[in-house]
Amino acid sequence: MESGESKYCSNCGHVYERFLTVETASMIFDLSPNAIRGLIKRREIPFYKMGRRVRLSYQDITDCLVRYPALQEVKLDLGDKSSYHDNVTRKPKMNLEEFEEWRNEVP
Question: For residue range 27-75, what is the model confidence (pLDDT) as tens digits?
């Protein structure tokens, strides 16, 4: 944010930059507080310290999130198969006699 700009939205008064406690971030991102602390300890998310207090920027955390595309968004080269599962070759199921035979061979 450049100097001279307000840190509040001119329309609704919402704060542009919002700092969160570990507990608040854990509720927002549906993680346990210990999971958030682990991310901080491994420095996987940026954080700020004020004395012993740790604060997280909402914007910094959302910038760290990785979006994985849905299957519909990924273009698969399936050839003449209609779906991914048609490409998988499955072993035929055993009948009861084959299963008993296999079970007797296993130590």
Answer: 998 999 999 999 999 999 999 998 999 999 988 888 888 877 776 666 5
CA 31 to CA 20: how far, in whole Å?
Answer: 14
Say if residues 49 and 58 touch (Cβ distance below 8 Å).
Answer: no
- Triad 29, 33, 37: Cα angle to 5°: 105
Q: Which two tokens stand for residue 31?
A: 């993680």
State how far the Cα of 62 lies from the Cα of 84, in Å rounded to an integer: 32
**Phi, psi for residue 8 in degrees, rounded to 5:** -115, 145
Give the C-alpha separation, 83 to 70, whole Å. 15
Total Cβ atoms within 10 A of residue 15: 11
CA distance 36 to 23: 8
3-state secondary structure of 37: helix
Q: Which two tokens stand for residue 80?
A: 């003449």
